[in-house]
Specification:
There is one protein chain. The protein is an all-alpha fold and 104 residues long. The chain has a domain of 55 residues. It is built from 4 helices and no strands. The radius of gyration is 19 Å and the shape is elongated. The chain starts with 11 loop residues before the first helix and ends in a 15-residue tail after the last helix.
């Protein structure tokens, strides 16, 4: 048996049952859910970095959506913060690379 200890999508136990797989799954305690979401975000971002695709971005987006719900934050809140940062610091549209800054 392979050991995972990771957050999986809600239908994974059902899918494993249909495939007649032996497995152990349980629901994470509410107090640990945020930790598992952060781990899952890292996993999904790593997969995107390894293989950039809309498929992998969708996985990242799904974890971000779960984080928003868990943190009781809305996409409107995120868009508002994004707009503030864009006003203060700009976007990434001009593709600047900071190569060096001289310290005084």
């Amino acid at each position: 048996m392979t050991y995972y200890d990771k957050l999986v999508r809600d239908r994974i136990p059902e899918i494993l049952e249909k495939k007649n797989k032996d497995f152990i799954a349980y629901k994470v305690a509410e107090c640990d859910y945020f930790l598992y979401l952060k781990r899952k975000l890292r996993e999904e971002v790593d997969e995107f970095l390894e293989s950039p695709s809309v498929h992998e971005l969708a996985d990242v987006y799904e974890v971000l959506s779960a984080l928003l719900r868990d943190m009781d934050v809305t996409m409107a809140d995120v868009r508002r913060e994004r707009a503030l940062k864009n006003d203060e610091r700009g976007t990434f549209d001009q593709r600047w690379i900071l190569a060096e800054v001289t310290d005084d």
